[in-house]
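Problem: given the chain below (604 residues), write out its structure.
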Amino acid sequence: MSARWRAIASSVVVGFSLVLAALVDQLVEPRNQFVATPFAVPILLAAVWFSRRGTIITIVLSVAVAAYAARVDDAPLVPALFHLCSLVIIGTLVLVVAGQRRAAAERARAAEQTSSTLRTLIDTLPAGVVVADARGAITLDNPAARVILGGAVTGTAFGPRGGYTLLALDGSPFPSQDLPLSRAIERGEATLDVEMEVQHSDGVKRSILAAGNAVRDAEGRIVGAVTIFQDITGRRRAAAERERLLAQIGTERARLQAILDNAPLGIVFVQALTGRVTANTASRQLFGRLILSDVGRNPITEQLRHPDGSPVTLAELPSTLALQGRPTATEEFLIVQPSGRRVPTRGRAVPIRGPTGQILGAVAVFEDISAQKQLEQLREEWTTLIAHDLRQPVTIIAGYAGLLARNATQVPPSLRAPVDHIIASVRQLDRMIADLVDVSRIEARRLTLKPQGVDLPALVQAVVERMADITRGHPVRVETNGDIPLLKADPVRIEQVLANLVSNAAKYSDPGTDIGVVIERRDGDAEVSVTNHGYGIAPDELSKLFTRFYRTRETHAGRVAGLGLGLYISKGIVEMHDGRIWVESIPGQTTTVHFTLPIPPPTP
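Solution.
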């Protein structure tokens, strides 16, 4: 009800009271003429309208009306004023009583509304709530409490309760006197975080966390108690699972740390966010010191070098590239230890990614290849020694065979063919010796190039003409497509590659078939293709052709001479020129070997 409607209702009550008072006054003193009575209603309406100030305004207006009435009717002022004041007093009393009853009704409605709101709030709480009076009798429980405890809460805070049993964490019955409700009612104690278990009638157990406190009146007397509890079964299971996972992680971490510390490879971790660097024991031995990092500084760059001794910049570090999401291929480095010792290593790095693919860090692995380098050096020295020791008798044989060939008139006809065979065999043996030396240099990365301007079509034509004896019986067609500019290459090594490919094409071609050599431009490269017609190469052998000492099954069956080093050496030479080489073959038809050389950019 609005304030204006309440004012109107109060005015009606007061007006009725005044009329009743006037009737009583006339019954007592019928001779009294109260001319002010018609003015009482508007006066008291004004009094009610102004609420608390109404009584004062009523008195003032009553005096004014009484004075006016006495003047008009020549009535005595005092009796009129007396009667008017009596009516005012009666009306005021009625107004006060009505206001008190109205206020009491308003308070009752507010209390009822508050109680309803509080009960609704308690019923919608996810936590269980139980209220008891001063004697411990349960007076209220909410739905959450009934769900958690497995039934309605009955009995008292001290005695038996139906449908469930409260247990301590060790499984024994929970003492009634230690329950939060009991402690609040008996001792007025406030309790927090009391853990216990509740067992339902069907045997289901739940873990709960309870708290309690006493309810006191205005004078501080305990009039009841309330306890609030929540189901923490899921939380305890999650905590147990977390502890199990943490223990498992700890075990795995210890196992991983043991593996890393005993691994023969140097392993370095770099965190993406902080840049912090950690390393295992092998890395500390490899770098000759503890690898510790400060913010904004990577200690590896201070010791890592390229094979030629030049420093590796931070942007070139394998770990830097891995942090950018770019795994690196295995490459060789030099590690300069604080003592000055240079350790040849082979290293690569990969990014470490999180569940959503984000880069968490990078791991770089370094392998000490000092022993391998020593073996390579010994092999190179041995190969060089063997090549030197072989070349001396081969040179002598070649010299005498050449002398015999030059004096053919003095050689009996029956010996001329053997002399030619001796010369051909000496040349083949010399090529084998040269191949062994080149293999040793390629593997030791000591094969040097002397690049200069090369006219590739002219070089190809010259090589084909010089190999006319080897390709006899196999016409060689040289075709150049497009304009091929001068290349920056070592002409001697490129001629070695061309000679190897053309000789292979002649050896493995069917009799009488031709050999095709095509030179053309492919984007930024010059490509050379050598094609022969023969029994071809099986698909499963294509990937093995560039392996050292590998020879195909058909080569073994056909008893073609060779060590299986030609393609291996050609691949090493082409890759040193930043080119690539590959083979395409159709078994029983053709085999084509392709290689490319980069075309230098035009000079401004």
